[in-house]
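From the methods appendix. Each design record in this collection lists the tokenized structure first, followed by the designed amino acid sequence. Records were kept in a plain field format so they could be parsed without special tools. The example shown here is representative of the layout used throughout.

RECORD:
FOLD TOKENS (412 positions):
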């Protein structure tokens, strides 16, 4: 069985961390100068590992094995949240590189075809899972049109600034692959709380996101009596409160919702706000609670609009992500590898975060494995995992990759 090189793995992971490092965190949002620098570095690392490497027209870094036979695609994303941790996405990307090298160094696995990928914009600066959607042909021109980041920069301009305008976009050659495996930090506390070292991911939650726009009348905060006001912020607070009261009544076991961004204009103490907007995101492992949340939203907005005064519009801000079940056949290989390296110390679990694997699973069989996150912290500079867990997860992935490909080639 192939042996990964822990020092080489950790050194490359730390190098990637240094590109866009801010204190202990990383700021490398999709298409930023640091993101593109990291992608060029990865491409050169893929080449050194013997892969044919390219950055495609949406910024995906793709490394293709020269070996024959069924291939396995490994990887994750190297873009980060606006203030991100060093492992979210980056770990799975460097695992893929290390597994390619480890399999190439072992006589029993050196003929196996492992491809590596770093997807672009998993973290939704412009369009969540942009790179994986593009790779499977699920990114339509209509989805890209008019897409802007929080500063108003268009996706088209970001592609141009990154030197990607006109660069061909790669389409996944589906018949080439036995599947895709994404390794990731858990980003939550379940593994740590249970004292387990590997999570075998059974499914990924679905997600929808809505932006509410509130249009009222800006006015003087001293002279405008309460009954005459059309206060956009007051409508925002009321809607947010009613959502928090009503969602628990229709929520599923794994339902979560977040109102993590809002704007009040002109954001001044002595002015009744004339405009506000609010982003709501909700997730669950099943469609039914997501549909129920959508129905609650439609009812609340209609109810508040019927009163007159502030006018509320609700618009989806992203293509929905459907809940996904991961491939049972691939998961068995990960379980067997986890049992070999962490006997009795792994568990099956769903993912509360979304991942590119959820998108890729629409095209080819996909699976995921998790390692523990210290304190369950992620999407924060403080995100971290123990070196021993990082090393263990990569070894489990290497073994699983070798056995997935051995089986796929025996069948072919
Ligand atoms: C992906 O990073 C997510 O927000 O789940
Ligand atoms: Mn991630
Ligand atoms: Mn993330």
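DESIGN:
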């Amino acid at each position: 069985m192939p042996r990964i090189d822990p020092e080489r793995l950790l050194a490359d992971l730390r190098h990637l961390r240094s590109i866009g490092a801010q204190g202990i965190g990383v700021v490398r949002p999709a298409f930023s100068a640091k993101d593109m620098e990291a992608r060029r570095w990865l491409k050169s690392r893929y080449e050194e590992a013997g892969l044919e490497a390219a950055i495609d027209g949406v910024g995906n870094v793709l490394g293709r094995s020269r070996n024959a036979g069924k291939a396995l695609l490994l990887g994750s994303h190297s873009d980060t949240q606006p203030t991100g941790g060093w492992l979210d996405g980056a770990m799975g990307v460097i695992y893929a590189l290390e597994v390619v090298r480890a399999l190439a160094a072992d006589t029993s696995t050196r003929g196996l075809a492992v491809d590596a990928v770093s997807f672009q914009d998993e973290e939704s600066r412009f369009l969540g899972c942009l790179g994986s959607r593009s790779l499977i042909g699920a990114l339509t021109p209509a989805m890209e049109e008019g897409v802007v980041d929080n500063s108003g920069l268009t996706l088209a301009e970001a592609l141009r600034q990154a030197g990607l305008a006109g660069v061909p976009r790669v389409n996944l050659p589906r018949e080439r692959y036995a599947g895709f495996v994404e390794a990731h930090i858990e980003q939550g506390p379940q593994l740590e709380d249970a004292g387990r070292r590997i999570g075998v991911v059974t499914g990924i939650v679905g997600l929808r996101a809505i932006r509410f726009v509130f249009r009222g009348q800006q006015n003087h905060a001293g002279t405008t009596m309460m009954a005459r006001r059309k206060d956009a912020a007051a409508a925002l607070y009321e809607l947010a409160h009613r959502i928090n009261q009503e969602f628990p009544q229709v929520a599923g076991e794994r339902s979560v919702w977040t109102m993590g961004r809002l704007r009040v204009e002109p954001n001044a103490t002595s002015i009744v706000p004339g405009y506000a907007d609010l982003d709501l995101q909700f997730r669950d492992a099943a469609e039914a609670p997501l549909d129920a949340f959508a129905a609650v939203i439609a009812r609340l907005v209609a109810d508040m609009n019927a009163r007159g005064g502030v006018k509320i519009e609700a618009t989806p801000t992203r293509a929905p992500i459907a809940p996904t079940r991961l491939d049972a056949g691939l998961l068995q290989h990960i379980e067997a590898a986890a049992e070999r390296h962490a006997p009795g110390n792994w568990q099956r679990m769903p993912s509360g975060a979304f991942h590119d694997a959820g998108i890729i699973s629409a095209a080819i069989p996909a699976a995921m494995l998790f390692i523990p996150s210290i304190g369950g912290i992620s999407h924060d500079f403080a995100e971290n995992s123990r070196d021993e867990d990082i090393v263990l997860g990569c070894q489990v992935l290497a073994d699983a990759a070798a056995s997935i490909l051995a089986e796929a080639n025996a069948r072919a």
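APPENDIX NOTE: Residues 81, 88, 123, 379 surround manganese (II) ion (ligand 3) (CB under 6 Å).
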